[in-house]
Recover the amino acids of this structure.
């Protein structure tokens, strides 16, 4: 009997010892969680890991050191809504439904129709809990483009990108309900100093400071979503509104940058289009990006605390390049796009080449760098493959999964990367290997000539070599013609002919 008790005790001891290993094996068999964090108007070189010298981004720099950093990643387009449409649907701008920013009543932008399949729908139907937190911009509340009608179980933030110009609004959306914020009155996204106000007096700018900072509310909801769904696979889409102007940031975040004593003349917006004034715009912009970095750090810390990090793939990118409003965002001071030409709204590299960082513990080798050409259309098939849902991906998309690249395997290069944009003068571009063709000012001149650049030798697109390579121009011109599909919703006469 004693011998039996000894054997029984040893059996239970062995079970207890093995239980953690069994649990860990079960965790590994569960599809990985996916976190996709999207900055708003963040330039290619505004993170430390991409060469930034003035703005502090320790959490994102650490994320890059733990994963793969892409040097030739492209947003979906040169401004918010069409770029996010490419991201959500896997179709390049010549096929995507939304092709430029356009408002829709009563609040929001042109909605994605029901027949468009989003990555959220694919993952939700594959068993993932899905949440979007931040700026949507692809359909008004209760419309067919509402995030709740496009695959997301949970939404919190701004539906309309115009509403998101203020960081101290009167309300945010929680699913289909407005949630009041403690900003009375709300701080507008666009305003000027009052007549007679002294632009050199810091007190003149107090009216542009609020109490209830919307990004704080959004970050809290992000963390709550992770806690709520820690026991099941989740897809967390976190399209932050930072660092899109207006320059709104709590004073506490300014202090580290004010201590540097930069020459930082006030932005007053005395006349013309612009956002709300700020007494120290350089410090404010840097502080906003550092605050975004802190929010990312909060997410990474929670994943560690909940022991989810090892089974969570984290992506970070930006929807387009840095804003063109130099008085508000001094992109020359920060060298926001590095050696690239162009800013937000442009199909030159600075308008569409963006940071892309991917951390996937045990899969992506830490500290690696990839020069593979990838675009936002590639995100949908990549996330689907990570989730084991590739069979659910529509056949009519333009994206190509880059999971092999993430895993360190050889992968055939993209045949081409196509972009078009019927705003900011009308533009069209295509990249094939080292060659980049671009046409501009198509709204005024439908026969605008093609500019050709060799990006391996001239990443700043300063030497147009079209005259030297007529055969390459002809080939790229034919590709551009082929990849444009006319849209009744967003006509582009120069290309629709």
């Amino acid at each position: 009997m004693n011998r039996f008790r000894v054997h029984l005790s040893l059996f239970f001891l062995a079970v207890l010892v093995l239980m953690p290993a069994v649990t860990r094996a079960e965790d590994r068999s569960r599809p990985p969680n996916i976190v996709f964090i999207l900055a708003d108007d963040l330039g290619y070189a505004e993170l430390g890991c991409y060469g930034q010298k003035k703005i502090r981004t320790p959490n994102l720099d650490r994320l890059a050191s733990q994963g793969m950093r892409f040097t030739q990643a492209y947003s979906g387009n040169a401004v918010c809504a069409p770029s996010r449409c490419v991201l959500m649907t896997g179709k390049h701008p010549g096929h995507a439904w939304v092709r430029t920013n356009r408002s829709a009543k009563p609040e929001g932008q042109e909605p994605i129709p029901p027949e468009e399949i989003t990555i959220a729908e694919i993952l939700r139907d594959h068993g993932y809990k899905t949440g979007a937190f931040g700026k949507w911009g692809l359909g008004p509340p209760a419309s067919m483009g509402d995030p709740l009608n496009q695959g997301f179980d949970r939404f919190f933030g701004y539906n309309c990108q115009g509403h998101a110009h203020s960081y101290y609004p009167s309300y945010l959306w929680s699913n289909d309900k407005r949630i009041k914020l403690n900003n009375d009155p709300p701080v507008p996204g666009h305003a000027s100093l009052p007549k007679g106000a002294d632009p050199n007096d810091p007190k003149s700018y107090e009216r542009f400071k609020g109490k209830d900072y919307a990004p704080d509310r959004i970050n809290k909801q992000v963390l709550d979503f992770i806690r709520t769904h820690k026991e099941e696979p989740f897809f967390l889409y976190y399209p932050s509104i930072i660092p899109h102007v207006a320059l709104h940031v709590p004073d506490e975040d300014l202090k580290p940058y004010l201590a540097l004593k930069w020459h930082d003349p006030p932005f007053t917006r005395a006349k013309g289009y612009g956002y709300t004034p700020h007494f120290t715009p350089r410090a404010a912009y840097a502080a906003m990006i550092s605050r975004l970095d802190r929010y990312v750090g909060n997410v990474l810390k929670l994943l560690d605390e909940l022991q989810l990090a090892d089974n969570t793939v984290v992506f970070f990118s930006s929807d387009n390049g840095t804003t063109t409003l130099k008085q508000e965002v001094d992109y020359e001071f920060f060298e926001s796009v590095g050696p690239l030409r162009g800013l937000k709204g442009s199909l030159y590299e600075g308008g569409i080449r963006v940071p892309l960082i991917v951390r996937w513990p045990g899969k992506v080798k830490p500290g690696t760098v990839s020069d593979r050409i990838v675009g936002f259309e590639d995100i949908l098939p990549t996330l689907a493959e990570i989730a084991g849902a590739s069979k659910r991906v529509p056949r009519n998309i333009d994206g190509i999964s880059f999971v092999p690249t993430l895993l360190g395997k050889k992968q055939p290069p993209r045949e081409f990367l196509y972009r078009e944009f019927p705003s900011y003068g009308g533009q069209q571009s295509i990249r094939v290997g080292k060659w980049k063709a671009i046409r501009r000012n198509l709204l005024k001149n439908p026969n605008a000539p093609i500019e050709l650049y060799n990006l391996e030798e001239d990443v700043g697109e300063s030497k147009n070599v079209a005259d030297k390579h007529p055969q390459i121009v002809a080939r790229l011109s034919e590709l551009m013609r082929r990849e444009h599909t006319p849209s009744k919703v967003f006509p582009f006469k120069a290309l629709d002919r």
Q: What stands out?
A: Confidence is low (pLDDT under 50) at residues 3-26.
